[in-house]
């Protein structure tokens, strides 16, 4: 797809003529693209990395804007500033030289396909890239002029069935008044506009949705999402072949590691974590892990989803395998050693890469916690900001001694669907109150980048106030050795 040799100097035909004509005859006649065709151009290694990093900055700015912006206007401003800084894209009506216009579009085209390769490695990375590429296309489409929109819609081949005015009464009946101000309507399968269906912005009849022209962007994004999802799956299968090129693979891995959605890397902020020190550290846990930890202490058991979420979180903060076995054995005090060995010890060792395929599993990100299967009856995994009722969430926030106005602020963010923003604001308020207790003249407020992982939350909340964990005694070491060997000897003696 790419040739890594140096870029050839290209001459653009008719460079002295009108800009629109010159650009129209180039590889990139329109600044909006569905990225249907892979780039057949030569790029240098330097451009390869620079283009991708600049696009990554834009996607991360969109992520931050969605989480932190105060309204649509603020979000649009933030994204426009990021685009202007890292990936400007001017219209054909601008007075820029043709070479510059084509260069901007070449960078946009090439950078998309570089990141498509870099982010195809895992399902989580593919989901992150897909979400914010769709958001970028939607932003650009909404800010494009009519001619650009029509050109992109024409190239997208959306297969729209136009509903004539004569057919409106027959197909819509009394609902035709819903579209009284709409000049054009398109009839499509309702699966293509689930966003509009969820917001009750279209009329449904026999599985068909009637979309006004003003909402055609939803159809465009659906088509783009569908084709990009398939393309990312193809890239994931082809990615191992990139290992033959020692120049590109490190660049691609570095790009995917820079996103906030990449796998969490332990910082060791808590120092040496033992089975005994977990309780003391729990004051710095995020709300999801506090809930799991408290339920474990109450019921002496957690179902699989909760064990995975809490177990990998504890692994990420520094709890080693031996202490993890001791921690869980003590927590499951209502069962016998034989029950623990047969039902749970293997899974704990498996999470640490000591059983099965010996994969070194990483903690769950906020995205995975939020988007995974919701908790059912008896389950305690998931994100409280998404899965708790409003009353239950407010009660949990009150336990942190937050005043009523702050509880309402966080709960309102969660109710509006801004789960990570609510979690981040919860952390900001916790840190603010901690600072107010320690400083005579604390700052008026604290603002952080959006939290993207429970372990990141823990690291930020723990800060520089690391408690000194107690030394592990000989009983802990001997218990761990017994569990590791699979022999439930006299381990119960320490409970």
Automatic annotation (TrEMBL):
CDD domains: PriL_PriS_Eukaryotic. Pfam families: DNA_primase_lrg, DNA_primase_lrg_N. It comes from the Eukaryota. [4Fe-4S] cluster binds at residues 288, 366, 383, 423. Its cofactor is [4Fe-4S] cluster. One of its GO terms (biological process) is DNA replication, synthesis of primer. Residues 283-458 form the DNA primase large subunit C-terminal domain. Keywords: 4Fe-4S, DNA replication, DNA-binding, Hydrolase, Iron, Iron-sulfur, Metal-binding, Primosome. GO terms for molecular function: 4 iron, 4 sulfur cluster binding; DNA binding; hydrolase activity; metal ion binding. One of its GO terms (cellular component) is alpha DNA polymerase:primase complex. The keyword Translocase does not apply. InterPro entries: DNA_primase_C, DNA_primase_lsu_euk, DNA_primase_lsu_euk/arc. Binds 1 [4Fe-4S] cluster. DNA primase is the polymerase that synthesizes small RNA primers for the Okazaki fragments made during discontinuous DNA replication. Belongs to the eukaryotic-type primase large subunit family. This is DNA primase large subunit. It comes from Coemansia spiralis. The lineage of its organism: Eukaryota, Fungi, Fungi incertae sedis, Zoopagomycota, Kickxellomycotina. The gene is PRI2.
